[in-house]
Amino acid sequence: MNHHVLTLACHDQVGIVHAVTGYLAAHDCNIVDSQQFGDPDAARFFMRVHFTSEYLDNTDLRIGFEATAHRFAMEWQIHDTAVKPRAMILVSKFGHCLNDLLYRGQIGALPAEICAIVSNHRDFESLANAYDVPFHYLPVSPETKAEQEKAILELVEAEHVDFVVLARYMQVLSDELCRALSGRVINIHHSFLPSFKGARPYLQAYDRGVKVIGATAHYVTADLDEGPIIEQEIARVDHSYSPARLAAVGRDVESLALSRAVHAHAEHRVLLNGSKTVVFR
Ligand SMILES: Nc1nc2c(c(=O)[nH]1)N[C@@H](CN(C=O)c1ccc(C(=O)N[C@@H](CCC(=O)O)C(=O)O)cc1)CN2
């Protein structure tokens, strides 16, 4: 019995669910879980269906679904859940999110395969080796940025990477790279966006005297820290927290927000809705 996940988005109208479930029933597919959402402001409809198919493989299902998708002008995909998406992780000098994802991957708690680690520093080469994940040292400076980003894209192609995770990668990706990987790059920003954008958010939080700090996992766009939010996490703090202690609490919050976002993305639970997301839990 093969398990598949259908995701779709289209203009909201009568009959979408009926058409989708009718197609699945007509092809002897059994629905395991189905979630949908109609956005009244965008007049857009979003759906995720987890189903089993005894007779048809993923290719047959996709070919068969074409006509229904065309009728509603859907953006859609049917994923075979036996195929784990391949993730490439980029990191700079802070390794807590990388370490968390590697451990979750090792114990089978991450529905993705970490196929490569890229860094502009060598700090986590030994950690990558310990987890037997290929490590790629790609230093960067303002002068070599275009060349370095070309090497990143070539690695994405060569390793058949499905999505990229910026696990505290402290370089701003160019517009070109963002366009080339649109909807496929997840970043962890170490603040509760939209508060404290840019670099040094914990110092900003300390100076502001906040009582709650947070972290935000979002898709990367050319506009720094403005991408569609996937997941956020928070922790309570108080006046006694130094900037260093805020950063220490922040490491746990960042790791949790990022791992949840990666998990949801890898299970095809996150659909883009303009500058926002729909996340089916
Ligand atoms: N195109 C985008 N690229 C990146 C984003 C993004 O939202 N869009 N997020 C960052 C991560 N980040 C905050 O979450 C961040 C990283 C780096 C900087 C920054 O100012 N970097 C300096 C260099 C710093 C250094 O060399 O240590 C710079 O690039 O000039 C701000 C925010 C990841 N990329």
Automatic annotation (TrEMBL):
It is an enzyme of class 3 (hydrolase). InterPro entries: ACT-like_dom_sf, ACT_dom, Formyl-FH4-Hydrolase_C, Formyl_transf_N, Formyl_transf_N_sf, PurU, PurU_ACT. The active site is at D225. It catalyses: (6R)-10-formyltetrahydrofolate + H2O = (6S)-5,6,7,8-tetrahydrofolate + formate + H(+). The keyword Lyase does not apply. Pathway: Purine metabolism; IMP biosynthesis via de novo pathway; formate from 10-formyl-5,6,7,8-tetrahydrofolate: step 1/1. Keywords: Hydrolase, One-carbon metabolism, Purine biosynthesis. Its EC number is 3.5.1.10. Residues 4-52 form the ACT domain. CDD domains: ACT_F4HF-DF, FMT_core_Formyl-FH4-Hydrolase_C. Residues 86-262 form the Formyl transferase N-terminal domain. One of its GO terms (molecular function) is formyltetrahydrofolate deformylase activity. Catalyzes the hydrolysis of 10-formyltetrahydrofolate (formyl-FH4) to formate and tetrahydrofolate (FH4). NCBIfam families: PRK06027.1, PurU. Belongs to the PurU family. HAMAP family: PurU (MF_01927). This is Formyltetrahydrofolate deformylase. It comes from Jatrophihabitans telluris. The lineage of its organism: Bacteria, Bacillati, Actinomycetota, Actinomycetes, Jatrophihabitantales.
